[in-house]
Amino acid sequence: MYLKAGRIKQDFSIKKANFEDISGSLKATGEPVGLVQFGAKSVRKGVSVKVLRASSRKLVKHAYIASRGSKAHVYWRKNRVSGTGKWPVGQKTTAPWHMIPPRYRVPVERLTGPRIEDIFSSPRVLDPVSIQAQHVYLQNVDDKISDILRRHNG
Predict the structure, then answer these.
(1) What percentage of the chain reaches a pLDDT higher than 70?
(2) 34-58: per-residue pLDDT in tens?
């Protein structure tokens, strides 16, 4: 993925093993990552994003970057369900929202990319992490055993 390391680490929590609880864990939880986190750039036809590092930038047509509150996100309007979606000729389009007929009110949708835990749970990522964790565990157990034997034999 084409995210900053700080944003990825934000969704991970590590529980280290101790004497009371000898099991440790690495947990990935969180919400879907907004497209604005993937280097979104506003262009004339929409928004350009790069989700995967190996792929090129993709254009999301008719999308726009806007801020709600303190954070910016990528939004677009959902497809129009009823009506033609076009204003009748000569009708004023600057009316307040509550005055607009319901068939022209189209909800705004926030666009997101893949969740960190979905990427982490894929076998392509999880298998190498599990293998590395097993090697570290076995190395730590060997070191502890040799340390205990050295102290008691020596």
Answers:
(1) 84
(2) 888 888 899 988 899 888 778 888 8
61 shares a domain with 8? yes
- Cβ distance 57 to 49 under 8 Å? yes
- Residue 52 CA to residue 116 CA, distance in Å, equals 13
Residue 64 bridge partners (DSSP) = 75
> Residue 138 is part of which domain span?
122-154
Residues 111, 131, single domain; the answer is no
Same domain flag for 44 and 10: yes
Q: Do residues 60 and 76 lie in contact, with contact meaning Cβ atoms separated by under 8 Å?
A: yes
Predicted model pTM? 0.61
HSE-CB of 15 using CA atoms within 13 angstroms: 9
Nearest residue to 117 (alpha-carbon basis) of 2, 6, 10, 4: 10
Angstrom distance (rounded) from CA 49 to CA 9: 21
